[in-house]
Amino acid sequence: MPRPKHVPASDLRLPDALEPGRPKGDQLREIIESVATEAGPGRLMPSERFLAEHFQVARGTVRQEINRLVADGVLYRQHGTATFTAQRQAAHIDMLTSFTEDMQARGVVPKTKVLHAEVESAGPRIAGRLNVPPGARVFRLERLRYVEDEPFAVERTNLSVDRFPDIELFDWETQSLHRTLEERWGVRADWNDTAISAALPTSHDAGLLGIEATQPCLIIQGTLHDQSGGVIEAGRSLYRADRYTVFTQARRNGS
């Protein structure tokens, strides 16, 4: 990941002072967002102390507006208090397509590091999700996903070895899981039960993703099915919320 670039104070187009008669917080937010847009993604922003002293406002007021822009995805925090302009988020549009297909459709070459790829005995929870007996042989695959050399997501999934024999023999750092399932076993995803929630990463996952343990992430838990209703895989993955947006499309049946 390239080192974020510092934006020197002399290069910033900051007003000399806030306008009288307008809420200070609103003005600060507009100014900071404008600076972030002009600076471009991945740039180090001025410190809270600098902005507070420059505009003669309380540091808490500056922190509040920066926090709002972090929540809006304009900025992100790293290494404690440093604030950077956010990168353009990669959007995951179709929950039936793979990470590899999503990124390639956007002209990005994804990279993968396999963290775990072993056959294990299914516990009650995974057995229930895969619709196999407890103790059945299950392939557990855990991969760290990169976009432009930046850690993006920790994907964890489980598949039945009885349904996909020898699945553990493939090179999952170079091969797409969904494409391999279709080409090798003729299995194609048809629908997905998906639950999405916000959570803080564990210290282990934060280390893998190169983020602070206080940075919000998205947990995406899904069970993928084929056209006959059979379970293909059961996964629970962690995505960086500052790099990942989930778009859904809903349609009412009937009138």
Could you walk me through the main structural features you see in this protein, from its secondary elements to its overall organization?
Residues 1-25 are annotated as: Disordered. Pfam families: GntR (PF00392), UTRA (PF07702). InterPro entries: Bact_HTH_transcr_reg, Chorismate_lyase_/UTRA_dom_sf, Tscrpt_reg_HTH_GntR, UTRA, WH-like_DNA-bd_sf, WH_DNA-bd_sf. By secondary structure, the chain is α+β, with helices and mostly antiparallel strands. 26% of the residues lie in helices and 31% in strands. The protein contains 7 helices and 12 strands. The protein has helices spanning 24-39, 48-55, 59-71, 99-105, 124-130, 177-185, 203-209; strands at residues 5-6, 43-44, 75-78, 82-85, 90-92, 110-121, 137-147, 150-160, 191-199, 217-225, 231-240, 244-246. The protein has a 6-stranded antiparallel beta sheet. Strands 1-2 form a two-stranded parallel sheet. A hairpin with a 3-residue loop joins strand 3 (75-78) and strand 4. Helix 1 (24-39) packs across helix 3 and helix 2 packs across helix 3. The longest helix has 16 residues, at 24-39. The mean pLDDT is 83.
What's the topology here?
Blueprint (H helix, E strand, L loop, with lengths): L4 E2 L17 H16 L3 E2 L3 H8 L3 H13 L3 E4 L3 E4 L4 E3 L6 H7 L4 E12 L2 H7 L6 E11 L2 E11 L16 H9 L5 E9 L3 H7 L7 E9 L5 E10 L3 E3 L9
